[in-house]
Specification:
20 helices; single chain; OB fold (Dihydrolipoamide Acetyltransferase, E2P); 33% helix; alpha/beta; Cobalt-precorrin-4 Transmethylase, domain 1; 5-stranded mixed β-barrel; 5-stranded mixed barrel
Length: 683
């Protein structure tokens, strides 16, 4: 008796990735819930349940301290919006092949195309795809349904339409649908979105069913891809049986059978497949001695990247290829990879960073690539240089963790909890606590910038965690030592304003923060430092004082040449006639502004050529008048002004005659109460 196990049996890349994400979250001590069962396998769901993983039906059911995992089937746009509205943390485990369909239908429907979807309308993957359509859409599950659809909607023959398929759709039905569409709908854009692993799995199942007496299909009864495997096998082998576990095997199935074939759905765990093979080996004698060895080799524990490579290996027998560039345009590279296969590398798959393909790549260039998807029918392959580089760059990331080497990368995304940096096409997560020098610094400002970082942790599934802060702190420490070794009182330095307080501004002067007291920011009286400087401003300061023991630096900002009294002394003299603005009143006169920072007193006796009871009778706040500088005391910072002396002489004489006693400005000020003068001067 010979038992043949399909090479592609078990977890596909997308399912393995989703399950691994859940295990990683649990291992990290996080509370986890999944939006629906993570896979269509009750045994796996029960195992995760024993680890505390809950199944919820909507984001509203998730608790705020849980991480909500979106399974590989994907969801519609509204589900993401609901999760964001609720405020729950999301881990998106959508299969990359499914996510690609979401992108296609979102772009094409936004452009006005009607979307046709080949698949099961009730399947969660199709429901998710529909959730990204913004235009009309239709779902069909067979060629006859497609024909009826076109008959009932004749406009589809003329209007632009885009056609996609569920990743697990029957490959033969999809082929027939494409043939029909190409004949009837000349404007149809057909996207081959059946997962390569699915088509290969179905093709392999068909080959095994043709050559074996009994076929055993292992997988959940609610699994779409398992159901399609059963249909494929049953159409070529009448003795086909679907089971979920080894306990469902029946010995009578194998009576008079010489060959048995075994296939498994994409959501079937390796452990269940092993148990089925082991049980069959006990039922069927003799057992192929190499069988168990093959199973062990096929289902070793794999990382995400290894699982991805394994899935590609099952498709092509050689996932890594070297291709020769035969054509280049702004969005895509055409590559010859031999064996009659033409490959395509999109701009997104060429590099994780935006590049100009026309200037970056030339015809006849050699590129190391990895195969993402291959279509045997069309002789084409979707390739990725970015993923090849990521695999090659992983060793460098691991080595950098051990050596402490400082790496260089670009911040591509800001996500909840931190930022994502790409270094040599490898994704590195930087937690918020390790992303900036200070916890108060904005993460958004990092997006798109180049940063230096260290690797501080290597996790399962090729997860790398880095720290920008450790590099910043080390650089700052070196800068501090350099500053303290050379700084001296009187030095003039250009610095950056880092923060403001009610009493001054802190300025970074090259790795060390110094403080400019509010009194040192302006010659004028200010209430808040923000009146003079803002965070981020580059300003020139000078060192006023140093405290090397406490590591404190006092800085000055206002310049001697900006001193209003210096400006006044350089530009004004006694007997000058100036235009001034009345700024305040007292019982003995009015203060008038000559220039900002310098006010002069117009004594009540110098306001007019007649007796004035109070200054308000002749003057008003804000009024501009002509006055003469009659006296200046730079030491006491006093200026005396007179309007009266500018009046006509004969009028002045009459005024003098009326006033029996006229005091000079200086005398009047001297006679005024000291407290009153001081108070007005302060104002």
């Amino acid at each position: 008796m010979k038992i043949t196990l399909a090479k592609t049996a078990g977890f596909c890349f997308g399912v393995n990735r989703a399950v691994q994400m859940v295990y990683d979250l649990v291992d990290n001590g996080e509370k986890v819930c999944t939006l629906g069962p993570i896979i269509h396998n009750s045994q796996m769901v029960e195992e995760l349940k024993s680890k505390g993983v809950r199944v919820v039906n909507s984001p509203d059911e998730a608790k705020l301290d849980e991480t909500l995992v979106i399974r590989s089937h994907g969801v519609g746009k509204s589900t993401y919006e609901s999760a964001e509205k609720v405020g729950v943390k999301v881990c998106d485990a959508t299969c990359p092949f499914v996510a690609k369909i979401h992108k296609i239908v979102a772009e094409q429907s936004a452009a006005g195309d009607t979307i046709l979807i080949a698949g099961d309308e009730a399947h969660h993957e199709v429901i998710g795809i529909i959730g990204h359509c913004v235009s009309d859409y239709y779902v069909f599950s067979s060629e006859s349904e497609l024909e009826n659809l076109i008959e009932n909607h004749l406009e589809l023959k003329e209007n632009p339409i885009s056609v996609v398929s569920q990743t697990t759709f029957n490959a033969k039905k999809w082929e027939n649908a494409q043939i029909f569409l190409k004949k009837v709908c000349t404007n149809a854009k057909i996207f081959d979105t059946i997962c390569s692993a699915t088509s290969t799995r179905q093709r392999e199942a068909q080959e095994l069913a043709r050559s074996n007496d009994v076929m055993v299909v292992i997988g959940g009864r609610h699994s779409s891809n398992t159901a399609k495997l059963f249909q494929v096998c049953a159409s070529f082998c009448q003795n086909t049986h679907l089971i979920e576990t080894a306990s469902e095997l029946v010995a009578d199935w194998f009576l008079n059978a010489n060959n048995v074939g075994v296939v498994a759905g994409a959501s079937t765990p390796a452990g269940i497949i092993k148990e089925v093979i082991k049980t069959m080996s006990e039922i069927l004698q003799p057992v192929d001695e190499q069988l168990e060895e093959v199973v062990q080799k096929s289902f070793e524990e794999m990382t995400d990247e290894e699982a991805f490579e394994a899935s590609l290996n099952s498709l092509t027998g050689e996932q890594k290829v070297c291709g020769t560039v035969v054509a280049v345009n702004a969005s895509e590279i055409t590559v010859d990879i031999g064996r009659g296969v033409t490959g395509y590398v999109s701009a997104e798959e060429y590099s994780s960073e935006p590049v100009d393909l026309l200037s970056e790549v030339k015809v006849d260039d050699k590129l190391n690539l990895i195969i993402m998807k291959i279509s045997d029918q069309e002789g084409t392959a979707m390739l990725s240089k970015r993923r090849y580089d990521a695999i090659a760059g992983w060793d460098n990331i691991v080595a950098a963790k051990d050596s402490g080497e400082v790496l260089h990368g670009v911040v591509r995304d800001v996500i909840k909890g931190g930022v994502v940096v790409y270094c040599n096409n490898v994704r590195v997560f930087i937690p918020a606590s390790q992303a900036t020098a200070s916890r108060n610094d904005s993460l958004e400002e990092l997006k798109g910038t180049e940063v230096d970082f260290r690797i501080i942790e290597i996790g399962r599934g090729r997860r790398a965690v880095g720290s920008i802060r450790s590099v910043l702190r080390e650089a700052r420490k070196e800068a501090e030592e350099k500053v303290w070794a050379s700084i001296a009182v009187g030095d003039r330095i250009t610095g950056t304003v880092k923060s403001l307080t009610s009493y001054g501004a802190f300025v970074d002067i090259g790795g060390v923060d110094g403080m400019v007291h509010i009194s040192e920011l302006s010659w004028n009286r200010i209430k808040n430092p923000a009146e003079v400087v803002s965070v981020g401003d580059e300003i020139e300061v000078y060192v006023k004082a140093l405290d090397t023991e406490k590591k404190k630096i006092s800085l000055g900002y206002k310049k001697a040449e900006d001193n209003p009294w210096t400006i006044f002394q350089n530009n004004y003299n006694v007997d000058d006639v100036v235009t001034v603005k009345i700024v305040s009143m007292t019982t003995y006169g009015a203060f008038a502004r000559i220039i900002p920072g310098v006010d002069g007193l117009i004594h009540i006796s110098q306001i007019a050529n007649k007796h004035v009871a109070k200054p308000q009778d002749e003057l008003a706040i804000g009024q501009e008048v002509e006055a003469k500088i009659t006296a200046v005391d730079l030491e006491k910072k006093r200026v005396s002004l007179s309007i009266r002396v500018l009046l006509e002489p004969e009028v002045v004489e009459e005024a003098v005659a009326e006033d029996e006693v006229v005091a000079t400005t200086e005398e009047a000020v001297a006679e005024a109460p000291v407290e009153e003068v001081a108070e007005e001067a302060a104002e």
